[in-house]
Amino acid sequence: MTSVVTLRCEGVRKSFGGVHALGGVSLGFAAPGIAAIVGPNGAGKTTLLDVITGFLRPESGRVTLGGRETTTLSASQIARLGMVRTFQELRVIHHASVLDNVMLGRPSQRGERLLFALSRIGVAKQEALNRAIALGVLEFTGLRGKADEPAGQLSYGQQKLLSLACCLATEARILLLDEPIAGLHPEMAEHILKLLVCLKAQGKLVVFIEHDLGAVREIADDVIVMDEGKVIAEGSPLEVLARPEIMEAFVA
Amino acid sequence: MAQFVANTVIAASILAIVALGFGLIYRVVHFFNFAHGALYTLGAYATLVLHHTVGMPFLLSAMSGVLLVAGVGWAMDLAIYRPIRRRSANTFTPMIASLGVLVVVTNQVALAWGDETRALRTGPVVEGIEMLGARVTGSQVVTVVICVCLYGLATWLMLCTKAGEVARAVACQPDLAAVVGIQSQRAISFVFLVGSALAAIAGVLVGLDTDLTPAMGWQALLMAVVAVVVGGAGDLRGVALGAILVAAIRNASVMVLPAQWQDAIVFGLLILFLLSRPQGILGGRSVRLKT
Amino acid sequence: MDYLLHLIVISCVYVTLAVSLDMLAGHTGILSVCHAAFFALGAYTSTLLAVRLGFAFPLALLAGMLSAAMFSVAVSLPSVRLRDDFFVIATFAFQLIFSSLLNNWTVLTRGPLGIPGIPTPRILGWTVASRGDWVFLAALMATVAFTAARLLTGGPFGRVLRAIREDESFARALGKETNRFKATVFAVSGAIAAAAGSLYGHYVGYIDPTSFSLGESILIVSMVIIGGAGSLWGPALGAVGLVALPELLRLIGFPAVLAANLRQVLYGLLLVIAMVLRPQGLFGKYGFER
Which value does ipTM take for this structure? Predict the structure, then answer.
C-alpha cells in the first residue's frame, strides 16, 4: 500500500539582503518516516521549510516532490499536491470554530467554486461528508469536545493540536511542522509526539523542526543538523546526537 | 521655461509643507492620517475668522490660528488615536477614523461658513514681481522661503532634540500597541503638535495665494499622499522629493494634455508606485506586503 | 406617500450597494473605497447602451454588470497583494481616476452635462413606470443581491473568505488559492454594485458624475462599517439608516441643502466613534483588528 513518496531538495540557496540564510542545502526524505531538523536559532530551518513549501522562492536549487519539480510552484499549489505545513508563530482562524478550522483544510470542496456556491447543487451533501471526516480528525487528535468553540478560546497547546488537525484534514502525505511541541506542557507534548508516530504508521512523512532533543531521540528516524544555512550532519539520532562537535554547535 | 520652474517650485513648496507634516506623522505612527487635510482647512479658516471677524492683524491671526490648530491636532491624537493604539497595532483603524474626521470637519466648515469661496487677502491683488525671468508674487516667494525654513526646522527637531530622538525610536517600533512609556506617548503627542502646525501653516499660505473653500483639505491631502508614497515616507528628504515630483508632473502634464487630466495623471503615478515600489523612491526597507 | 416610496427605492439601491461591499470588505477583509466606481460603471454602461443604442433594460443591466466584473479584475489583480492601508490608498486612486474619466471623457460620457433622457425600462412586456412598480423592482433587486451575498458568504466559499480575512497565509498553506477567491468576490461585488447603478440610472432618468464621486464611496463604506462589517444585515440597516437620516433632519426643520452636509457630519462622526469604541459596528462580529 505504501508507495514511496520522496521529497528532495538540491542545492537550495536563499539570502535576504546579503545575509545567506541557506547556503546550498541538499536533502532527501521518503514517506513513511519521521525526520527532525535541528540547529541553533538562525540556522535557516524555518527558511528551508518556507522554500520547500513554496512560501519563499530560492535563488538557486530545486525542490522535487515525487520526482516532480515544485520549486516555482505557489504555496497553495504545493499544499494541493499533498505537502502541508504548520507555522512557528501559531496560526489558526481565531474567530472561526474549531470544526470550521478543520473543515477549511478539506480538499476539493465543491462549494468553494462560484457556480456551486450560488446554486448549492450537491454542496450540502459534501459538507455533511466533510463534517464527518473533520470530526473524525478532531477525534483522532483529541479535540472532539471543543469542536464548536471559537479557536481563539483554546489554550496554546490545544491550538497547536488544532493546527495539526487542519493539516490532517487536507489528507496530505507529507507534513512539515515548525516546532510542533515548543512551549507545551510535557503531557501535551507527549500526546502530540504519539500522534506523529501514528501518522508514520499511516504511511505519512513527518518532518519537524524542533529544539527539544529528547523528543527527537524519541520518535525521529532521521535527524538533520543545520547551522548557518548549511547541513552539518545527517543520520540516525543515536549516532548524530552523540557526536560532541554537533552538541557544541547547539551551545554556541 | 523659467515660469515653469517658478510655478513648479511654488506649487512644490506648498505641497511640501503639507506633505512634511503628513509624512512626519506617518513615519512615527505608521498610518495615513487623513485628518491632516482637516487641520489644513481649519488653519485657513481659523485665521480667516481671527483676522476678518475678530479683527486681529494678519500675522497675529495666522500665528494664533496655527497654534490653535496645533492644539486641535494634539487633542485629536489624545482623544481618538491613542485609544485605538492602545487596543492594537493596526494601521487600518486609525486611518478610517481619520477619514471620518476629515469628512466631519469639511462639512462642519461648510455648515458654518458656507460653500462659497472666501478670501484671506484684504488688499488688492498684487501685480507680482519679475524674478529670474518669471513672474511671482510676494506671498509666493514668502511661501518658498517658509517651506525651506520649515524643512530645516523639522530636520533639526527630529535629529537634535530629545523629543525627536524618542520619536525616531518610536518610528522603528513595529508594534505600536506595545509603545506605552510616558516618554513615547509624549513624543507622539509632540509629533502631532508639530505636524498639525505644519498643516495649518500650509492652509494659511494657500489661503493667501488662492481662496478658501470647505473642500480644500481633500485636494491638499490627496496630493500629499501621493508625494509621501512616491517620495518615500521614511525620510523627510523623500517627502520633499515626492512633492517636487508631483508638482513637476502636474505642471508638465498641462503642456501635453488638457488641464483637466492633471489629477488623473498624478493618481496614475500613485498607482504605479503602489504596485511597483510602495516604499517610494527614497524608501529604504521594502514595505511589508500582505503575506 | 409618493415621497416615502421614493425613499424606499433609494434605500433598496443603497442596501444593494452596502451588501455588495460587505461581501468584499466585511467578509474578506478587502476594504475598497472605489465602490462608487462600480456603481457608476453600471449606471453609465447601461444608460449609454439604452440611450444611444436602444438596448432593452435587462440586456443593459447585464452589460453593466459584465463591464463592472471586467473592471474589477483590472483593479484587483495587481493590487490585492498590497498591505491593507496601501490597498485602501490604491482604491482611492482608482476612484479618483475613474471620476476624472467620467468628468473629462466627454465624448463618451458628456462629462458634467450627464446623460439625460434615460428611457423607462421594459422587462418582458412589463413597463416599469409607476412608483409602485419601481418599489417592486428595487426591492426585488435588493433581495436578490442580499441572497447572493448570503449564499457566497455562507458555506465553504464563505469559510475561505473569512479565513482570508484573518490569516491569508494559513489559508494558502491549506491549499486554498486565495487570489482566485479574492478576484471572484471582487468581481461579484462589483457586478452587484453595477446592477444597482443600472437600476438607479433608469429610475432617476438622468445621471451625472456627481452622484458617483469619492464621497459616495466613503458613504457606502460608512454604511458597512457603522452597520457592522461582516454581518450583511448590519450594512443593510446601516444603508437604510443613512439614507433616512437627511429626511429625518428635514422633518425636524433643517433646510435641504444643510441636511446633506449634516448627514455627512453625522456619518463621519459615527465612523470615528465606531473606530474608537466599537470597530465591529452595530451588528458586526469583529472589527479590522488583526
Answer: 0.92
